[in-house]
Amino acid sequence: MKKAIFVFLFLVGGCSYLESETEQANRLVKTYHIDIKADDPKESYPEEFLNKDAPLNNVNITKTTLKDASDTLNGIESALSVYPKGFVSEVIDVVYISSSIKIEGAAAGGTYGSKWIALSNIAQWNGTEANYKNAFRGFHHELSSLIFNHSPSILVTWQSLLSEDWEPAVSNYEALTKDELAPDYNAGFLSDYGKTSMGNDFNIYAEFAFAEPEKLRELAATYPIIAKKLSLFITAYTQFSAKYQQDFEDYFARTGLSDVAVQPDNFEMTIHLDLSDIKPQINQ
Predict the structure, then answer these.
(1) Helix crossing, 224-238 with 152-160: angle to 10°?
(2) Residues sharing a CB contact under 8 Å with residue 43, sequence separation 6 or more, in sequence order
(3) pLDDT tens, 154-178?
(4) What does the alpha-carbon distance between residue 138 and residue 157 come to, in Å, rounded to a whole number?
(5) Which ranges constitute the DSSP H helices of the chain?
(6) Considering the entire predicted model, what is its pTM?
(7) pLDDT digits over 112-144, tens only?
(8) What are the helix and strand counts (H, E) for the chain?
């Protein structure tokens, strides 16, 4: 069961009832105009999974139920509240909640497709903070992949900020199963997982920007390379749509992130590419 909803009756003291997981999901659907399903995206987006050359043909997702996803729903709700009204529904149509997500056989916290994201909900984590944290941070992580793919000039400049000896993971399996080492802040990485690909690097910046902005502000004020990547990250969101530009500018100003961001010398918003055929990258 879910959080208490208070109802005030005329001439009667306040009373409350427990909102069910299904009721919470339906409320979020109506508020944010996206679907929330405990389902397998393969059923709605088979073309992204089933063909040999499909971008997600090595992804296996196991269904769960909304009743078993209380903490994950709370994490999703917290994440949705961060964004400007209407923004998320322009980027995705559906959030899937799954009992497990495996990519090349390795367990993952989430993944994404053309107009959806999926988040894992591990049954044995229920009642702890783990599913909530995975959903809260994972929502920002996965959603940011679609922002990154929409920002070709950011992609090009982001790559220029990586050290010459940087090499991405050779596979999703390696990225998901490698031992997690201490973050290399001097090289601009907020986590060791961020080193595994440019997309994952950007995803981790999204986690910090929307879940731990105070920590990211502190790191950007200390490490110049993080300040430059942060500037690119901010630009990706403020330039995504003119409709939401002011809202994101206000958010980054309010959190102090824009104060510590430093634009790279070689960045210009002059590159226009068609990335419609880019295959989705797989994320943790």
Answers:
(1) 170
(2) none
(3) 999 999 999 999 999 999 999 999 9
(4) 25
(5) 21-32, 70-80, 87-91, 130-149, 152-160, 172-177, 198-211, 213-222, 224-238, 242-254, 257-260
(6) 0.89
(7) 999 999 999 999 999 999 999 999 999 999 999
(8) 11, 8
